[in-house]
Amino acid sequence: MCSQKKWYSFVLPRYLLYDVNPPEGFNLRRDVYVRIASLLKTLRKSENWVLVLPPWGRLYHWQSPDIIQVRIAWSEFFDIPSLNKNIPVIEYEQFLAESGGPFIEQVYVLQGYAEGWKEGTWQEKIDEKPCIDQLMYSRDKHGYYRGWFWGYEETRGLNASCLSVQGSASIVAPILLKNTSAQSVMLDRAENLLHDHYGGKDYWNTRRSMVFAKHLRVVGDKFRKKYLQSTDEADRTQYKEDWTQMKVKTGTALGGPYLGVHLRRRDFVWGHREDVPSLQGAVKKIHSLLESLKLERVFVATDAVEEEVELLKKLLPEMVRFEPSLEELKLYKDGGLAVIDQWICAHARYFIGTSVSTFSFRIHEEREILGFDPKTTYNRFCGETEKNSCKGNRGNPGGSGKFCHSIDGTPGTLKATEAVRTKLEPDSGWVRQTLLGRMKQQSLINMIAWQKILRI
Ligand SMILES: Nc1nc2c(ncn2[C@@H]2O[C@H](COP(=O)(O)OP(=O)(O)OP(=O)(O)O)[C@@H](O)[C@H]2O)c(=O)[nH]1
Ligand SMILES: [Mg+2]
């Protein structure tokens, strides 16, 4: 099924776009970026490919009222020049401007195999297959595919089909290089791809390139200084704007004089009953850590509901939190606040997070990058029914069956949590129905809007 290359594919770059299962949160999406970046590197060995950053929006957890959180550019949360030092990336708006309009030539929806995966017989494979589930795209009267497309209603797919895949990200490369000559290709449900080399050099280069946007780091640094007596000089966490120039040795960072805590609540309380502590249990652990580490301050990042925060304040009066004003919330949005919390936790002398939370995982990684001793980093609260010495929080995102490695190559102990955790999200049921419903409604609105613009 080889197709001939169009003349312009030798002049213009080819664009790779992607999206992730709608219920997935901010932090798993950040991990999927790492996987896609390795695919892009593989593609670039043969052709000039550029990655189009999927706009952020409509995430399950970003529910702050009165602020619109769709079509958010990556520059709101990440430093684009830093990303570009790893692979060429552009924002979606730039893609629209330079690729000639809101068209994506080929959409591939990634899916598993209808027959499933038999335990013990892991084999990497990819095949063009009929779609197993109903497509989250519908065809308009002109034959274009309409779908969510990150909230860009005018975007249309020219073709859409399904790929069954079981394997690492780069397994898609031969399909993109040989089976299609489309100038722009989107991989939907990209979380189905695993890491090429979890914990390898490439993995860490991409992860290190995901530098938080400067304006958010500045807010976090000011807060550290004002409320936690924490500065880079004193904490030995000197930061270089150019991540390629950062040569940090593991164990050299000291961290600010505070305990950093990530207490994941809300859906985790009922979704992970065995390994998430009660608030009382968490506070008991925090007190014992403060005592053994001889620290007086504790910074708590949490998504707890208001009543739980009130209870926490009573149980833990010494707690310090970043509490944004409405203005700050509007400015930084839920994603920016998550980044600020993560940045402050990443600079603590000692960090303890929540079991299998990708929010906590990203803090662990940030601390590795800053040069913290893993012993001060890979800690998690034990659940009520676990013993107090429950295992650390070193997960292996997407490395199914492989062990994970820290930045200096130290092997971790726990396996494949992020890869299998996709199944924990509320994929089916109301999410799907709601999206399909909205999609139908939207395609009608889109059609009318486009008829007006194109005068057809
Ligand atoms: N500001 C802030 N937001 C948080 C905190 N904990 C959770 N959140 C919010 O909840 C979201 C967490 O969802 P995910 O990114 O999916 O991470 P997770 O749910 O912990 O982990 P998985 O479901 O395993 O992927 C974040 O994007 C935040 O919006 C916190 O401590 N501070
Ligand atoms: Mg989540």
TrEMBL record:
Main location: endoplasmic reticulum
Gene3D superfamilies: 3.40.50.11340, 3.40.50.11350
Recorded GO MF terms: peptide-O-fucosyltransferase activity
Pathway connected to this protein: Protein modification; protein glycosylation
Catalyzed reactions per annotation: L-threonyl-[protein] + GDP-beta-L-fucose = 3-O-(alpha-L-fucosyl)-L-threonyl-[protein] + GDP + H(+); L-seryl-[protein] + GDP-beta-L-fucose = 3-O-(alpha-L-fucosyl)-L-seryl-[protein] + GDP + H(+)
Location relative to the cell: Endoplasmic reticulum; Golgi apparatus
UniProt keyword terms in alphabetical order: Carbohydrate metabolism, Disulfide bond, Endoplasmic reticulum, Fucose metabolism, Glycoprotein, Glycosyltransferase, Golgi apparatus, Signal, Transferase
A single cellular component GO annotation: Golgi apparatus
GO biological process: fucose metabolic process
Cross-referenced Pfam families: O-FucT
EC number: 2.4.1.221
Matches recorded under InterPro entries: GDP-Fuc_O-FucTrfase (IPR019378), OFUT2-like (IPR045130)
Family: Belongs to the glycosyltransferase 68 family.
Name this protein carries in UniProt: GDP-fucose protein O-fucosyltransferase 2
Organism listed in the record: Junco hyemalis
Taxonomic placement: Eukaryota, Metazoa, Chordata, Craniata, Vertebrata
